[in-house]
Amino acid sequence: MSEIKNDLPGDSVSESDILNQRLSKYNALKEREINVYPNRFIREFTVTEILSLFESSEDPQKKVTAAGRVMSKRPMGKAGFINIQDFSGQIQVYSNNTLLNDDDYFVFSQIDIGDIVGIGGETFKTKTGESSIRVDKLTMLSKNLFPLPISKEKDGIRFDEFADVEQRYRRRYLDLAVNPEVKNTFIIRSKIVSHIRNFLVAKGFFEVETPMMHSIASGAAARPFKTHHNTLDMDLFLRIAPELHLKRLITGGFEKVFELNRNFRNEGISIKHNPEFTMMEIYQAYADYEDMMNLTEELIADTARVVLNSDQLIYGETTISLKPPWPRKPYFEIILEKTGLDFKPFLKSEHPSFEEAKKMAQSAGVGTKDLHTFWEVVDAVFSDKVEASLIQPVFITDFPRAMSPLAKSKPENNLLVERFEPYINGWEIGNAFTELNDPFDQKERFLQQMQMKKEGQAEVIEMDEDFIDVLKVGMPPTGGLGIGIDRLVMLMTNSPSIKDVILFPLLKKKEL
Q1: 15-178: what CATH class?
Q2: CB 406 within 8 A of CB 445
Q3: Per-residue pLDDT averaged across 191-196, rounded?
Q4: 290 phi and psi, to 5 degrees?
Q5: CA-to-CA distance for 377 and 366, rounded, in angstroms?
Q6: What whole-number distance in Å separates Cα of residue 125 and Cα of residue 128?
Q7: pTM, two decimal places
C-alpha cells in the first residue's frame, strides 16, 4: 500500500496534484467495478461499544462490524494499520493480503486519509497492548477526494491540525472531522439546551413557537433585517425578539411559557455578537423580577451541575462559582462604586441634563461623540467602565425607565424600573423585567422611544399599537426573562468567541 502525503494547499505538493492522485485511486476502484459510494452498510457496533468490550475482558475475541473515517494509516508492505473514527471515538484497525479477499485488499491498498470505510473482523490486542480490530472484510463507503486539513503525520500522530481559524468556521465540516474538541463543544451545547428545556418543563412551563417574521420590529431595541412577502406585497422584519408575542400568550391564559428561539439583529459582529443568535425567553404570570432572579441563578447553576458535573466553571484562568445566591447590585450604585460618578441626583428630573452627563463621562475617559441622549451617556459609562469588572455572577438591578420601555416602574421611584441583567465574566448573559401591563403607561413609553429616535438614538423599541390593544384586554402581573444561549455555552465550554459555539456563524463573503 503506497503512502500519499496528505498535504494542504500551499505545501510542497499542490492541491491539484493531491486531487489527481485521489481521482486516480477512485478511477482504479471504479475500473474494478467496486462501488465507492454504496447505498447502505449495516453497522453493529460503534467504536466506543467495541472499546468497552476490552474493559470486560483483557483480550476479547469477538466478531464486530463498524464504520468510520480513516484518520491515519501506516502501511507495512502487504499489511498495514489504519485508525478509523466515528462519532463516539477512534480505534486501530489491522489487516493484510491474507486476511482480505482480492477486492477488499485492493480497497485496502487504495485507502487515503479521509475515506469512510466499513469493516468486519475480530477484536484483539497488539503486542504493545493497544485495543484493535483484525479486519477480514473491508468496504469503501465514501471516497475522500478533497484531503482533510492535516499537514503532517508521523507514526499515526497528527500535527498542525487546521490552524487557520477562519477556514475552520467557513468549513465547519472539516473542523468537526479533524478536531474532536470542537465536536465536544457542540455536544455540550446540545446538552445545555436539552437540560434547559427539561428544567423548565419540570417547573411547569409550556414550550411554544412564535413567528419569526414580524410586521413591526419591536420587543427589543435593535436594528432589524428587512424582507418582503411577495403574495401579501408587504414588508416584514426578521424577529429581533419574541417578547411581545409571548406576552400575548400570557394575556390569552397561558400562565408559564417559554421559547428557545432564533433572533436576528442587523448589527455588529464581535466575539460576543452574531447577527443570528439563540435566546431562551420565559414568561410567568403572577411573578416579578425577584422571582426571575431566583429562577435565573437556579437554572444556570443546575445546568452546570448536570452538564459539567460542577457548580463552578473555568473560563481562561478564572474560576467562576455559579452557586446561588448571586449578589444584587443596583445599576446607579455599581456605576458609583466602580467609577466614582454619581448619576443618581439626575433621577429627580424627567429631563436630566445631557451636557452635564457628557462632562461626567468625559472626566472618566468615556467618549461621547456619537451619543445623543442622557441615557446613552450613562449606558456608555456602564459599558466602558463597569461591565468588564463583573466577573463573578451578579444581578445588576433597577435600571432607568427611559432605557427599559417594557418594564414596570418601581413603586418608590417612577424613574427606575424592576429590571435586572445577569452578568458573568464581564458579559451580559440575559435581561429580565417585572413586565409592564398598564396599556396607558406602555403607550407613553413607546412614544418616549419615538422621541428618542427623533433625537438621534438609533436603537429604540418601535411602537406596536396592536400590543397596546393586547394589554387593554388585561395581562396579569408577569415576570419575564431572556438568556443568551450562545454566551452561556461560551462560558461553559471555555470558548473565546461566539463563532466557536455556533456551528455555522455568519462570515463576510470570501473574495475570489
Answers
A1: mainly beta
A2: yes
A3: 98
A4: -65, -45
A5: 9
A6: 8
A7: 0.90
